[in-house]
Amino acid sequence: MDTTDDARTRIDTTVAHPARRYNYWLGGKDHFAADRASGDAIAAAMPGVKLMAVENRAFMGRAVRYLAEQGIRQFLDIGTGIPAPNNTHEIAQSVDPSSRVVYVDNDPIVLTHARALLTSAPGGANAYIDGDLRDPEAILAHPDLPATLDLSRPVALLLVAVLHFIREDEHPERIIETLTAALAPGSYLVASHATWEYLPAEVIAALTRNNTDGRFQARTAARFAELLAPFDLVEPGIESVAYWHADDVPGPRPSAEEVACFGAVARIR
Ligand SMILES: C[S@@+](CC[C@H](N)C(=O)[O-])C[C@H]1O[C@@H](n2cnc3c(N)ncnc32)[C@H](O)[C@@H]1O
């Protein structure tokens, strides 16, 4: 089966999709009217949301580079998003071209971009799995995973700006535990998470009205910390994505309140 053609038939351009809305906020070209309308409605209530997208993406790049420089050569990036500058494999393979990356996303539009994503540096390898974070067993059982990653060796699991699409009744702890239990000692988790912690009640009310399908689940730093509790946080622990290992990023820097997104890197025991 040509999965790309299959994916095209699954793309619904009449409802907003997180991957396309994020691409819109990042200044990309892969979005439709419904994504722009939803993105603009959220930005009207929360003007910092585009900054959040940009800073989150930059955090992901710094975290991948940090782990590549620690010697990590395998990456499992779940909630890949539409390709944008500094995709995981580009950064990892710029440190070591032999790095291997498996991408996973449940949005068919991301799948249509898979061929572009799959262009690996010579000596490295990239794969793309059409999978859902809410079904971690299926991701782990997919044949393309062991074909690309050696799970007996350390892997960096990336859950960057995707956990906030997992509702509490979908058991985020169980998902994280299932995935990390499959990884070798010395593996890492990179995670970021949007928050409404800093927002006034009227803004939260506007964002809640916009979250018509209930798919978005903001969390506090305390709740994010609970999700990461089984792991050893790399310094400085849970931090605004704008400030995690950002000493060398040229200023002026936005405030943590404007960016409203936490990030962390943790070592899996
Ligand atoms: C905000 S984008 C983040 C992209 C990238 N990780 C980054 O931080 O730049 C969120 C991505 O997660 C994907 N996503 C949302 N829910 C998902 C799920 N249950 N399983 C897999 N991917 C999911 C969306 O399709 C989208 O591509």
From TrEMBL:
Domain of life, source organism: Bacteria
Annotated Gene3D superfamilies: Vaccinia Virus protein VP39 (3.40.50.150)
Pfam families: Methyltransf_19
Protein's name in the database: S-adenosyl methyltransferase
